[in-house]
Amino acid sequence: MDKFKQIADFIRDKFNTPHGPIYLHEPRFYGNEKKYVNECIDTTFVSSVGKFVTRFEEMIAEFTGAKYAIATVNGTAALHVSLLLSDVKPEDEVITQALTFIATANAISYTGAIPIFVDVDRDTLGLSPDALKAFLTENAILQDGECLNKRTGKRIKACVPMHTFGHPCRIEEIIEICKQYNIDVVEDSAESLGSYYKGKHTGTFGKFGTLSFNGNKTITTGGGGMILTNDERLGKQAKHITTTAKVPHPWEFVHDMTGYNYRLTNIAAALGCAQMEQLPGFLKAKRKMADVYATFFNQQGIEFVTEPKNCLSNYWLNTLILKDKAEQDNFIEFMNNQGIMVRPIWQLMNRLAMYNKCQCDSLENTKWLADRVVNIPSSVITNL
Ligand SMILES: *Cc1c(COP(=O)(O)O)cnc(C)c1O
Questions:
Q1: Same fold yes or no, 2-28+279-348+371-376 and 33-275
Q2: What is the mean predicted confidence (pLDDT) over 268-287?
Q3: What is the pTM for the complete model shown?
Q4: Which of 163, 255, 343, 369 registers the highest number of CB atoms within 10 A of its CB?
Q5: Which of 82, 106, 188 has most ligand 1 atoms within 8 Å of CB, for mutation?
Q6: What is the DSSP string of 58-116?
Q7: Domain 33-275 class, CATH top level
């Protein structure tokens, strides 16, 4: 417990918070947030039409290098629409990781498809191309250009790798394997705004990538999301289907399909524009914090997760890998009792009631990590 006390003192010191709670990831509003939101109110453009939505989309496209960025009401909606536009249909199957936030699996379910859970890599914490390849070699056949699951007879239409806690997974290898099986890739990049794989922004490798601007993410719009794609036709379809599929006309309301009201409000986008202006500073501060943590935990003999080879991570949530389940339990209880919020990984998807009948591989690394991973306070601090 002495060691845990030292860690608690260290975190309190760095966050300059001698007493009171320290949260996992708090939003920071140091810039033009109030100014831009006031502009929405003053002009009455508070809803789904307004210049901030377009500006926010442009800022995200420019920052990530995606050709098209389409704002949505949240990251789950961005995933849902990306899967729909990848032609995922009811009774199809979609491969993803069990080690993820519920949104990934839920978005798959919204299309009527069924998730398959494949193992993650021990170092990246993201979907393992080795496990993916092994699963497909054992279970899949290509028939008339479609990937069929030999065990279920169903079509495997898409794969959703997730860049866990902002650490890029081995996305190039995943894309290559999926290409061989004619499986579309939707990157769940909700946690990885500002993370790069070999110099290219996460979320720009697959057919689609998705971002989230929930309150605990690297930047926030309160709630919000973004669809990324390099395909003009898909980009236009994504905009159309997320904005009720209304045919453009000054006064007539004609809709040419069942669309979704997944629009981001101008107020939320105004926050987003102000947050984007600060993103480079946030990323710098987060990298500094990760550096300070890495040095400290190294001295403590505790494993601190650092960015994978050839990658630049945004260090969204800083992550420890403890010795075993007992140490994980003790550490989480000790720190939370001290008012320092730390938490285990999400309950694995394959252990939730809705998904415990889904097909899985051994999930060896996934289960091993679930018993050891702890996220520690990661909010931006500017005075390190
Ligand atoms: C945050 C997050 C999402 C999207 O969540 P929303 O709250 O709908 O914006 C999706 N996937 C992962 C892995 C996430 O962490």
A1: no
A2: 98
A3: 0.98
A4: 163
A5: 188
A6: HHHHHHH--SEEEEESSHHHHHHHHHHHTT--TT-EEEEESSS-HHHHHHHHHTT-EEE
A7: alpha beta
